[in-house]
Amino acid sequence: MDYSSKALELHKKYQGKLETVSKVPIKNKEDLSTVYTPGVAAVSQFISQNPEAVNELTLKGRTVAVVSDGSAILGLGNLGPEAALPVMEGKCLLFKTFAGLDAFPIVLNTQEPEEIIKIVKALAPTFAAINLEDISAPKCFAIEKALQGLGIPVMHDDQHGTAVAILGPLKTAVELAGKDWTKLKVVISGAGAAGSSVARMLSDVGDVLVLDSKGIISVERQDLEGYEQSSKLRESSAYKNDLAKITNKNNVQGDLQKALEQADVFIGLSVGGVLKPEYIKNMAKDPIIFAMANPIPEIYPEEAKKMGVRFIATGRSDFPNQVNNSLAFPGIFKGAIQGHAKQITVEMKKAATDALGNILKNPTPDNFVPSMFDPKVVEEVSQAVIRAIK
Questions:
Q1: Residue 233 has pLDDT above 60, yes or no
Q2: Would you call 144 exposed, middle or buried from its count of C-beta atoms within 10 A (0-12, 13-18, 19+)?
Q3: What is the pLDDT of residue 2?
Q4: Is the pLDDT of residue 227 over 70?
Q5: pLDDT for the residue numbered 239
Q6: Cis peptide before 125 (omega within 30 of 0)
Q7: Of 37, 297, 359, 371, which is the most buried if we count CB atoms within 10 A?
Q8: Which of 91, 139, 179, 240 is catalytic?
């Protein structure tokens, strides 16, 4: 099916995907006087004396801001705020459809970290949580970190939602393949926001190798510094140096083919076609592949299966085992909001990962990733997050 033409037609027909709908009818003066002046003054006075009541008396307690600067839209790159808007609208639909949360898209006409931080802080009183979306690395790391003191959950979904959505099903595949999680060798192609977060959440496996466009990241690399921007907030490529310190225990040098020698798992968060079929020959027995690049995965399932791969997931809906962030972020935010969390912690993300990995009761190589349409996904992930809140 030609989804590109269909999507353009749909967006033109409906002029976007969201609208504001009143929860309260206004049919007469009495209604008007209750929802607005003079009656609403009593609500404002009550909230001023009881600040926590704002969550019960307004939309704040159930509303998420979906914020982007348009600098890293899907796999398309820096297309700006207007081009980001249809994606953020879609994200809001997913919040409502899967978690029952109201969400609003906010695209910013700035890509300066300090400005983004300042704007989001100013907007925060309206929302129960902030979902940062499609903001490029490495500035996304600094922005998310700076917003952790808002008193409401803030999460950059491209980092942590992606990590949870991948690692939950990975746990299932590892168990099916009879592998030891603590001895896994995992190779991650892509050192951006998602790849960095996945690597950090794999601290309990045997070893992790991460590759950027120049090869395997290691402490021996001399080219990991150098990113600079006009902003006063200099978030350089030092994050790759940090990755080097917690990955690649044996300081392996080289390209993807070298990295994959005796690797148990390949996680692709890069570009289509980089995983050549012949590379798989040197991987460990019964390798597990997550080829997440869209629309062209790092390797197509049929190519991988010809090389004996039983466990392969992609980000595409037309292949089995689709991994999508909607497996993670609706439940994470729902749990964080319902549990009155001040921020989303590592423990909450790990709990979400474990819950997602336990959804399927009878998984198989062709079905080890749960469907985002399975109502158990959001419910079990959100409950796990609530239990992890301290």
A1: no
A2: buried
A3: 82
A4: no
A5: 80
A6: no
A7: 297
A8: 91
Distances (CA, A) of 187 to 172, 266, 299, 324, 349: 18, 5, 14, 20, 21
User: Are 188 and 91 within one domain?
Assistant: no
pLDDT at 62 > cutoff 50: yes
The last residue of one of the domains, among 130, 153, 176, is 153
Identify the DSSP state of 96: I
Last residue of a domain, one of 128, 153, 178: 153
Domain that holds residue 92: 3-153
276 and 255: one domain? yes
**Separation of alpha carbons 258 and 15, rounded Å:** 49
**Residue 42: which CATH number?**
3.40.50.10380
Looking at the structure, tell me whether residues 269 and 167 fall in a common domain. yes
Q: CA angle at residue 186 from 182 to 191, to 5 degrees? A: 130
Q: Are 158 and 131 spatial neighbours (Cβ–Cβ below 8 Å)? A: no
- Residue 14 annotated as catalytic: no
Separation CA 104–CA 123 (nearest Å): 12
Read off the tokens for 4. Answer: 């590109």
Q: Same domain for 277 and 343?
A: yes
Identified catalytic residue from 3, 14, 36, 285: 36
Q: Going edge to edge, which strands form the sheet with 129-132?
A: 102-107, 63-68, 129-132, 154-156
Active site residue 239: no
Q: Which of 92-96, 224-228, 315-319 has the highest mean pLDDT?
A: 92-96
Give the global pTM.
0.92
* Cβ neighbours of residue 366 closer than 8 Å, sequence gap 6 or more: 320, 321
